[in-house]
Amino acid sequence: MTYFTDVAFDSINKYGEELCGDKVEVIKTEDSMIIVLADGLGSGVKANILATLTSKIAGTMLMEGASIDETVDTIVNTLPVCNVRKIAYSTFTILKINEDGSVYTVEYDNPPLIFIRGNRYYDVEKRSSTMINGRPIKESNFRLEPGDTLTVVSDGVIHAGVGAVLNLGWQWENVKDHLTHVAGKEKCAKNVTKNLIEVCKNLYADKPGDDTTVVTVKLRKGEEVDMFTGPPKDSETDPWVIKKFMEGEGKKVVCGGTAANIVSRELKEEIIVNMDFYDGDVPPTANVKGIDLVTEGVLTLCKVVEKIKQYIDDLEINTAYKQGDKDGASKLVKMLIEDCTHLNLWVGKAVNPAHQNTDFPIDLTIKLKVVDELIALMKKLGKQVKVTYV
Amino acid sequence: MTIIHVCIGSACHLKGAYNVIHGLQKIVEDRKLEDQIIIKANFCLGECTKAVSVRVNDNPILSVDEKNVETFFEEYVLGRV
């Protein structure tokens, strides 16, 4: 059985700094994923260089199969020595997660990783062999099950609040407790990350005293969404396209009036437009038996792209959609962010007369462009996207 | 029973399909014709250049906007009730 590794990370910079001294590197190999969080000594440019070098070297060498000893040795001998402190230094955490759920971790001086299963924290047994600057490198092996959450934070998180509302900062124990409440409830890694980052931001009163980074990994069963938009170029292929579209195991989404009409014709199921809710911005949704969500096309998709962009750009918890939003775009965004690991797109290339209408706003004229944007955003969120043009 | 289909596809939505639906609902209500006329929203009727596309029963598609809802109603719907 293979699983989907859902990874999400966000950082906030030390107040007044342009660059972040924490660096996260995510590398996908054929059957595993390597994630490195490095926290460079100091802040600003210097820290950024140290962290970037560390994460790049570690990621690249481990991916190519180098041993941890070789990798650490290379890092120690490569990093420039800090003029002030006379040491070359960057803390790091490395996670290697295989598709079957087995995990290998290497930690050096970062706050210990936090492993949550259900609503409980579990201690991970660690062993140490090598030392750098008198501090041990800790290794561990364990196995993740679907639904498990693994969180790695930089010390900016456990110090959150120092110099502002807390004397000693948030502290690791409290971060751990907070995570046991959050991790089980959120389905996707990004929402867990956003939650922690938002708490840190608040504790720092929007003036972080240190670079603050959260990496969350969730092992999930793959969840597919099959999405059909736009009529096929050649209407004779309609029956074939719909047959293929319905064959997939995922949730079914149809975006577009004409597309919905085609689906309705092929499935011999009536379209019932949902009139009990009307949003001025987003055209109504409809119900077709056998389809999970039916929306209008290009306007809804534009809105979806806008909302996902907002979701990615805003560090705060999710301003893009609320649970229970009823408009088509919000429903679709929620599904794409939370309930989707694999997106299969069926994109029709027929020209829609409506979009040739001279009164139509310019940026709506190219639906394919909107779809391309959506694909790029979904990839950015770590989703696997497959596109079939019909 | 007369059914008025109002298109709410992309083009019609932008041209104010909601206002047309709203206008029709109001007229039907004012004239107490609720048990004789049903207003239904429809996905794309395929006549996007005629936005807002409206079809009464199975008759040809007409172009209606929020300003001429009343005239449209008098001319094309009332005669059938």
TrEMBL record, chain A:
GO MF, one annotated term: phosphatase activity
Top-level taxonomic group: Bacteria
Signal peptide: none
Record-annotated PPM-type phosphatase domain positions: 4-219
InterPro entries: Bact_Sigma-Reg, PPM-type-like_dom_sf, PPM-type_phosphatase-like_dom
Pfam families the record matches: SpoIIE
Gene3D superfamilies linked to this entry: PPM-type phosphatase domain
SUPFAM superfamilies, per the entry: PP2C-like
Hydrolase listed as a keyword: yes
TM region positions: none
Keywords, in A-Z order: Hydrolase
Protein known as: Stage II sporulation protein E
Originating organism: Marinisporobacter balticus
Lineage, opening ranks: Bacteria, Bacillati, Bacillota, Clostridia, Peptostreptococcales
Automatic annotation (TrEMBL), chain B:
Organism: Marinisporobacter balticus
InterPro entries xrefs: Thioredoxin-like_sf (IPR036249)
Superkingdom of the source species: Bacteria
A Pfam short name: 2Fe-2S_thioredx
Name of the protein: Thioredoxin-like protein
